Predict the structure.
Amino acid sequence: MTGESESNCILSSDGLKLYYIISKVENPVAVVCILHGHGEHIGRYAHVMQYLSEKRVASIGFDFRGHGQSEGRRGHMPSMDAILADVEESLKFVRVNYLDVPMFLFGHSFGGCVALNYVLKKPVLELQGFIASSPWLALAFEPPNWKVKLGKFMAKIFPRLTLASELNPEHLSKDQKVAENYQSDPHVHNKISAGFFNETVAGGKYVSANVGNIKLPGLVYHGNQDQIISFETTSLAVEKSNQIQFQELDGVFHEPHNDEEKEEVFGLIDAWISKNLD
């Protein structure tokens, strides 16, 4: 049955239960592993998974540790390496379920930063390619200076210290319902630890410095009206790679898959996956 969804948990390498949703299709042409952004959860991608299923693309997404219905301290990760290990566990799970199907990695915002770190740092023979949506390589705004200094200091002595993030839900999409639903969603949080922030900043800088070493084909797209993650940093970084197809989305906010232009974005994803199946 097309679009049939199931949910359960996989175990991280250090024993945390990571909640996932899998969308199954008959005779899929591909399978996509979806990585969500900071503070949100995989349930916000149900419509993306439904669209993919209509194109005969199966998908799986899991809540990062400290997010959604997964275990772990809210808004915290011990290291980027721990998150990459979680992604590795999820990809193993995908491969067990889809032995001979081309597999792609898709990440949005923080998930986009993770996807790019993964294809740079891990063996990627199992992957056919990757997609990064508005990847968190740098913020589009400056957090208060006191918070930055406190975060750097506390990351060394107490990385689990959690503060409120500076995300404004009004900046997610031009569709006001997106902000309203985000604010009322019980599985969304605005917590970010000193360790999480510093590890992500370091991960973004690593990608910007090494993106030219990526060997896999990739699609990166970013709205030029993103007020959360820096469009300029993304566009400058991807120029260093001959493997990445970059698409500037004119007038689009931080969540292209939830903005008014989402049908155009879905078409972009579908066309790129189709082109990279062989």
User: Anything to note?
Assistant: The chain has a mean pLDDT of 92. The radius of gyration is 17 Å.
